[in-house]
Design a protein that fits this description.
- It holds the Pfam family HHH_3.
- With about 120 residues, this protein is mainly alpha-helical.
- Helix content is about 40%, strand content about 5%.
- The longest helix has 18 residues, at about 1-20.
- The mean pLDDT is about 80.
Length: about 120
């Protein structure tokens, strides 16, 4: 009985050492990044799936929750009169836009450069 137990434990140990990918073996080059590696990446590059509030047209703005034709036109009119937004919270100055509405756009919209041609 003792011999069977020893053999079973040896088989388990052998499987753990050689059949399961050993964590101590180096599997190839790994990348190490620092903050300066990302310094040259613009927010437009990172947030390509988001809507740039400073570039969006009415149709694009209407893709955001709570924005219909009237609110989209109000955003465009405010942007035309006052220039590009500096932060998303600046949109509270637009009639009909609340802070709760802006918070619901997390991950959907951002304030980027107004001179970039890509969204």
């Amino acid at each position: 009985m003792l011999l069977c137990t020893v053999i079973a434990l040896a088989a388990i140990a052998w499987g753990a050492l050689f059949l399961i990918a050993p964590v101590w073996q180096f599997s190839g080059p790994t990348a190490s990044y620092t903050d300066k590696d990302f310094a040259s990446v613009s927010s437009e590059t990172i947030q390509t799936d988001c809507i740039n509030i400073n570039l969006a047209d009415a149709e694009t703005l209407m893709m955001l929750p709570g924005i219909g034709p009237a609110k989209a036109e109000a955003i465009l009119a405010w942007r035309e009169a006052h220039g590009p937004f500096s932060t998303l919270m600046d949109l509270e100055q637009v009639s009909g836009i609340s802070s709760g509405m802006i918070e619901s756009w997390e991950g959907l919209a951002y304030v980027g450069s107004s001179d970039t041609q890509t969204q």
